Amino acid sequence: MKKKLLSIGAVALLSVGLAACGNDDGDKDTGKTDGSSTKSVGESVDYKITGIDPGAGIMEATEEAINEYGLDKWDLTTGSGAAMTAALKKAYDKEEPIIVTGWTPHWKFAKFDLKYLDDPKGVYGGEEQIHTIARTGLAEDLPEAHQILSNFKWEEQDMGDIMVAIQDGEKEEVAAQNWIDANEDKVAEWTDGVDKVDGDKINLVYVAWDSEIASHNVMKLVLEDMGYDVTLTQVEAGPLWTAIADGSADASLAAWLPVTHETYASKFEGKFEDLGISMEGVKIGLVVPEYMDIDSIEDLQE
């Protein structure tokens, strides 16, 4: 009887050992494409690119990239900016492969070690700019706000400070106010020579990107300090441009040009005013964690 029990125990131990060996092989199958995985990059992420809201210009550019690079097996999932960063964090914490639509400035580049995939076909364009746009007639109706919005310019670091603070748990308006308090000279340049008003209403529209949440909360507080009654309205990119073009919204600080919002800028040409560039050197593209052994969109063809 003792020999029989010993035999059963030995089999159990052998089974556990074999299972452990199997788990080791599975752990190696991470899609890092560094020789430790038998899967291609596409197989490791189920041929999925994690995107954001379907109306965003970066999604249109990514659909074009899928076609241009012949990525017939690949799917672009839609969701939101928050859902995309949540998926990124989940994968990053486990050091698993993931490919997301990305843009800078964005707090994720401060929190995670990430890189853009090279885009040899230039589908995503080069460096972009963030523009401030307004409905036609704003200069006549709200000249003070028009001047402030035209003067609005800042750096990626400015926006980044606010985005990181919000991500770390600070309320949006508190993070924006803290930045204003620490950058009074810069804000003074936006409002220099502009008279205060008495409760004039203005509606700013923006997309739910962390970058635009930061800029619009700052501008809301600046305009309120100048006497405006400010409404912030969050919409997707298409409705944003439509609202500016038909005059139902007054202005937006969220126009990414020349690539991201090219479709909308062309569609509504002549129906909005470009008040100028608020930030230079912004970028969009496909982003992966640095630990993934992949450097180019062309690598996704494998």
UniProtKB/TrEMBL annotation:
Signal peptide residue numbers: 1-19
Superkingdom of source: Bacteria
Location in the cell: Cell membrane
Pfam families, sorted: OpuAC
Keywords from the UniProt entry: Cell membrane, Membrane, Signal, Transport
Residue ranges constituting the ABC-type glycine betaine transport system substrate-binding domain according to the UniProt record: 40-181, 201-301
Primary location: membrane
Name the UniProt record assigns to this protein: Glycine betaine ABC transporter substrate-binding protein
